[in-house]
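pinned: reference chain
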Amino acid sequence: MITVREVTTAQDLDRFVKLPFAIYQGDPNWVSPLLSDLKRTLTPGKNPFWTHAERKLFLAEKDSRPVGRVCATVDANYNGFHKSSIGFFGFFESTDDQETANALIAAACRWCREKGMTMVYGPANPSLNDEAGLLLDGFDSPPLVKMSYNPRYYEKLIQAAGLCKVKDLHAYVVAADRPMPEKYTRVIEMLKAKPGVKVRPIDLKHLKEDLESIKEIYNDAWSDNWDFAPMTSEEIDDMAKQLKPLIVPELCPMVFCKGEPAAMSIALPDYNQVLARLGGRLLPFGWLKFLIYKGKITRGRLWALGVKAKFRHQGFDSLLYYESLVAARKLGYKQGEVSWILEDNLSIIRPILNLGGRLYKTYRVYQQPL
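pinned: its structure tokens
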């Protein structure tokens, strides 16, 4: 008999974040997040996302043992921008049991309906600005930093629970240790030589100023995207605070045109290669392992890339790909991932294919009318 109950105590939250260790036992490709980071993400008052969103956490239990979990979220900023009434489900985990999955999805949908929502999207952990989508293929390799992962059987559980596709998200892999096409390099060098065009790495010593440029580009470049939800200044500042110790400036180029911020991208070393060795904890010896293994990272992920609308179709997206790939090669990376990208965002996909990239993982966002 499956029972689903709300997470109400610190002990419940601890069981919520630790549940995946039982689900993924023996899976060599699963990477545990830092448990302290996950708790922070889910805690109002610590994560500024919850100043404009609310959530309810649920645990599914069988014989008093946790067998599944889900988070239901309603984001006022997302619905205000899109003039919609859409809730989200995320942080979904379940044993291979349809009754458990059905009960969790039903609990999330019921709570969203009580909040006045008419549709649910997911998975989104906790929003589409974070880890999103259910992995459908590419199970032969671990996820890169800040990308989701799940067992193969989740697709069966989600579909049998009555959800259907709303959008697919793509991840492309690019070899970083191969020479770039000469023609591609020549075109990029000509673009960089244009009067008024300046490309440089993000400046961590003047991060406050560069953050203003990043906010400006973000709000312009992503505003037409299906998944866009405006991030507050507090969210962007908090994200920068969390990422600053992890950023390699050369992997984060910015483009200016006649002094105006025009485009930017953020690539991260694949710290999942380090996290896989930590078991979800930095203490007591996790910091030492982190310092030892961060120098052995062999790949990176291009996490965000945006070009202001007025500067599109000028090659700045290709320029950002080029600069990131050059930096990755200097770091000794063998491989890079560009993700995630909306399946129909062809203007972003074409330059990746021109660099020899190939689609190697697909994630799906599902929907359920309420």
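why pinned: The chain has a mean pLDDT of 94. Residues 32 and 77 are 29 Å apart (CA to CA).
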